[in-house]
Amino acid sequence: MVRRCITICLAIASLALFSATRAKADDLFTYEVGPDTYSWVLPASPTPDGYELGSIFTILDVTYSIDGTSYTGGQANFYPSGIPGGGFVLEQDGGSVLLNVFGSQLYMGPENAPTFDLGTFSLNNGSQDGPLDTLTIQTAPGTAATPEPSSLLLLAGGLFSFLGLAWKRRIAAQSIS
Fold it and tell me: pTM, whole model, 2 decimals?
């Protein structure tokens, strides 16, 4: 009985560690439009600088590059699939629009706590009927999904509770015999 309980606890702990949240991972965005390549890195689960539920969330102070030349002070706005059809706007410092892209919703969850979807997306540039270009969102090199400390504490607490219960039952069984 004790061995079975320990085996189950270890299996649950292993599963929890391998399916850890993406709390500290960053995502690399690469958008190819014509001959130009735009790229920027954002947290996989950003804390928006502004949002309106069901409508938009904004990330300020985005560092981006165009064909390898780096710029700071950008702003990224992301829209859900209903506004109009999803997508994003990337603005440079001062509010000039660099990219206005329509298509897929690029995140899951509410606008106040989004998590970006990884993958390759075909999006319309400039308008809903504009030319199709490619956006790739992938885990940024040098970052990895790591469990949040609170998740690890919860996991450890559950594991020790199961071990304590198994120990208590073992002692109770020994005192009966």
Answer: 0.67
Torsional class of 111: left (φ above 0), alpha (ψ -120 to 50), beta (otherwise): alpha
- Secondary element (H or E) of residue 20: none
Helix (H) or strand (E) holding 15: helix 2-18
Per-residue pLDDT of the chain (177 residues; tens, 9 = 90+): 656 656 665 566 555 555 444 456 899 999 999 899 999 999 999 999 999 999 999 999 999 999 999 999 999 999 998 766 789 999 998 889 999 999 989 999 999 999 999 999 999 988 878 888 999 999 988 766 555 566 556 666 676 776 777 777 878 778 776
The residue extents of the domains of the chain are 2-19+147-176, 26-139
Residue at 43: amino acid letter: P
| Sign, CA torsion 138/143/144/146 | negative
- Contact in structure between 78 and 107 (CB atoms under 8 Å): yes
